[in-house]
Amino acid sequence: MPANLPPQYHEIERKFREAKSTPEKLACLREMLSVIPKHKGTEKLQGDLKRRISKLQSQLQKSRKLGRRPYGFSVQREGAAQVVLVGPANSGKSSLVKALTRADAEVAQYPFTTTKPMPGMMQFEDIQIQLVDTPPVMPGSLEQWYVQLVMNADALLLVLDVVSPSVLEELEMVRVQLASHKVALGSGAEPEPAPDEERLRLKKALVVGNKIDLEPPREAVELVQELLGETARLFPFSTVGGDLADSLKRAIFELLDLVRVYTKVPGKKPDLDRPFVLRGGSTVLEVAALVHKDFEANLKSARIWGSGAFDGQYVQRDHVVKDKDVIELHL
Hints:
Elements: H1 7-18, H2 22-35, H3 43-65, E1 82-86, H4 93-100, E2 118-124, E3 127-133, H5 144-152, E4 155-161, H6 167-179, E5 183-186, E6 201-210, H7 218-228, E7 233-236, H8 245-256, E8 258-263, E9 276-279, H9 284-291, H10 293-298, E10 301-306, E11 309-315, E12 325-330
Parallel strand pairs: 1-3, 1-4, 4-6, 5-6, 6-7, 8-12
Antiparallel strand pairs: 2-3, 8-9, 10-11, 10-12
Helix pairs in contact: 1-2, 2-3
C-alpha cells in the first residue's frame, strides 16, 4: 500500500536534513510523525521515525547525565519587555508576529513552519516590546530551552485557531504541557492559586483567538472563554485587514503593567522622546535610580505633572508614579 505522504511531511523532512542540533532534529522527527497518515502503508515509516526519536532522546538524556549542557536556543532581551508566543501547530503565531512587528517571519499554509524562536520588535506608541515566536507546543515533553524561555518572559501570548474544530482540546493540551513544567496561565491580576496549582508559577497571559475573519461558531469562542475562566482574557483577533492590531498592542501593554515616565530639567520642557519604563507600582525614588545613581542617593525633592497629582506638585520619594507622568528631580 503506498504511503501517500502529504506535502507538509516533505517540507518538514527538508528542515530535518538542514537541522544542525539534536533538539532541532528531534522536533522535526516528532512533527513528521504527527503529520503522516496513520494506515498500513505507513506502518514501517512510523516505526522508523519512532526508533529515530527514541535514539535522539537517549542521546540528549545521556548528555545531561554526563553534565554537558545540550544545545538549545536563547533570545537576548530587547525593548521594554519580552513577550513569548505559545500555541499549537497552525494557530497563526507567525502571522500574528508579522502583523505586529517588522520581523520577517516565515508564514506558510502548512504547520510547523517555525522551528526555533524568532524575535521581533513591536512598536507601541513611544516604546518597543519584544515578541518572540516559538515552535508549536505538541503532546510530549517540552525542550528545556523552551521552558526556560517561557519562564524568563514577562508575559505569554497563547495563540489559538478559534476556527479549528479541536480548539478546546488544543487549549487543554497546551495548558497540560505548561503545567507539566510548573507553569500556569495567569491574568494580570495574579489570582490566588487553586489548591492543585499551589506549586505552579503563574505567568501573565493573554489568549488570542486568531482567525475570527473566518467567522468561527459563536459557541466555540464562548466555550474557549468558559474553559479559561478567570485565569486569562480571550482577545478575538485576525491578521487580515489589520484593524485589530492597535487594540491588541494596547492589550499587550496593559497586560505587562508598564508605566512610562518622562523627565524634565527645571525651567525647560520635558524630554518626551525617550521615556523611562518601569513596572506598575514604581516610586519616584525608583525613577531617580534609573536616571543616575547620584539622584537615587541625594534626591531631596521632586515635582510631578500627570494623572496622579496636581501639575507641578511636590511629592515624596515613595510617591507611586503613573503612566506618562513627567518628573522634575531636585538634588
